[in-house]
Amino acid sequence: MPKTHGRPVPLNAWGTGEAFSSTPLGLGQLGSADVPVPESRVLVPSDMLAIVHWIYPEIIVPGYLGFGWPGMTWWDGKSLHQGGDLAVFCDGHVETSKSELIPRTRIGNLGVWRFKPDEARAKRWNNDNQPHPETWP
């Protein structure tokens, strides 16, 4: 994840795929050289997440909230903001979503939750607008 002023930038670089994949599902690879995908590769800009609310690792458990990255864990299963978490889409519009409304399962007794992957949410992370369940944890 790139950094700005020492903080991670919440860019959807990999989609639901692995980091540094030869075919990125997100907006481009991040590493020693940034290699963005061409705009033409984003098939449905109005339904692809570009920038998503990110929880910094030093605060709690790192991860994306309210938009259900498949299999992501979250400490207490609730959005940090009363109105919901925010995301900017590739066409420039903004949406809000509450993580507590996403189906999830509790892991153990420590208040840790895992979002249940689903195709409708997963496809919004990928530039081909497909869910790619083979990439889910």
Short description:
With 137 residues, the protein is mostly beta strands.
Give your account of this protein's structure.
- With 137 residues, the chain is mainly β.
- The chain has one domain (3-135).
- It contains 1 helix and 12 strands, in the order ββββββββββββα.
- The protein has one helix at residues 119-122; strands at 3-4, 7-8, 28-29, 35-36, 49-52, 54-55, 63-64, 73-74, 85-89, 94-97, 104-107, 112-115.
- The strands form 5 sheets. A 3-stranded antiparallel beta sheet has the order 5-9-10, with no helix packed on it. Strands 8-12-11 form a 3-stranded antiparallel beta sheet, with no helix packed on it. The protein has a two-stranded antiparallel ribbon with strand order 1-2.
- The longest helix is centred in the last third of the chain and has 4 residues, at 119-122.
- The chain is globular.
- The chain starts with a strand and ends in a 15-residue tail after the last helix.
Q: What spatial form do the alpha-carbon principal axes imply?
A: globular
The fraction of residues in strands falls at 25-35%
| Biggest sheet character | 3 strands, antiparallel
Number of distinct beta strands:
12
Low-pLDDT stretches are 1-6, 58-62
Question: Whole-number average pLDDT?
Answer: 77
In terms of structural class, how would the helical and strand content be classed? mainly beta
Radius of gyration (CA) equals 14 Å
Percent helix range: under 10%
